[in-house]
Amino acid sequence: MRLVVIVLVVVEIVTAVLVSGMIPPEFKAVHALFETLLVLAALGAAAATARHPHLISSSQLILRTGFLGELAVPRDSVRSVSPVLQTIKGRGPRAVAGDPHAMACSVASTVNVRIELDPPVNIDLAGTGKRAVRRIYLSTESPDVARGVLQSNG
User: Fold this and answer.
1) Higher pLDDT, 109 or 52
2) Could you tell me which residues are beta bridge partners of residue 124?
3) Considering only CA atoms, which of 130, 103, 134 is closest in space to residue 119?
4) What is the spatial distance between Cα 24 and Cα 43, in angstroms, rounded to a whole number?
5) Picking from 1-5, 16-20, 22-26, 76-80, which range would have the lowest pLDDT averaged per residue?
6) Which of 5, 23, 92, 146 ranks highest by number of CB atoms within 10 Å?
7) Nearest-CA neighbor of 118 among 56, 88, 57, 74?
8) Using alpha carbons only, what angle is made at residue 48 by residues 85 and 144, rounded to the nearest 5 degrees?
């Protein structure tokens, strides 16, 4: 999708230059402003679709939520990974209401993977302070692939 938007932006810029030569001079400033806003909105949409995937190494798991933040967890703390379909209010790294030992790390409120940690990991969540986390909920494109990768030996 990002590539299509960028191609459309380039076509729009070329078209705007051609149309600018045909419109009356008193409307050129308004047209230029409109085209600038249109191009900036399209580039903003393209930037918003940029992906920053979770990173899994032999020593740590980095859960990323784009501009909302990221969370690093030692890989040897991961004990089990299971698919789950749940809605947890909020976005980004956040506490899970009703469970003081759980947190969610996703861009949207729907999560599809639960990671059990042992020993618990101390995580400093903005607004709630440090807490010992035993469960992390996150979203992945493929929960089965995530479970296989996370439960392998690195």
Assistant:
1) 109
2) 130
3) 134
4) 28
5) 1-5
6) 146
7) 74
8) 30
**Alpha-carbon gap, residue 148 to 134, rounded angstroms:** 20
Distance between CA atoms of 135 and 82, rounded to whole angstroms? 11
Q: What is the mean pLDDT of the chain?
A: 87
Compute the distance between CA of residue 25 and CA of residue 29 in angstroms, rounded to an integer.
Answer: 8
133 contacts 95 by C-beta, under 8 angstroms:
no
Question: Which pLDDT score, from 0 to 100, does residue 31 have?
Answer: 95
Residue 113's contacts (CB-CB under 8 Å, 6 or more residues apart) are: 81, 82, 83, 84, 137, 138, 139, 140, 143, 146, 147
State percent of the chain over pLDDT 70: 94
C-beta of residue 66 within 8 angstroms of C-beta of residue 96: no
Instruction: Give me the helix-helix angle, 25-48 and 2-20, nearest 10°.
Output: 170
pTM greater than 0.70 (yes/no): no
Rounded mean pLDDT of 8-32? 93
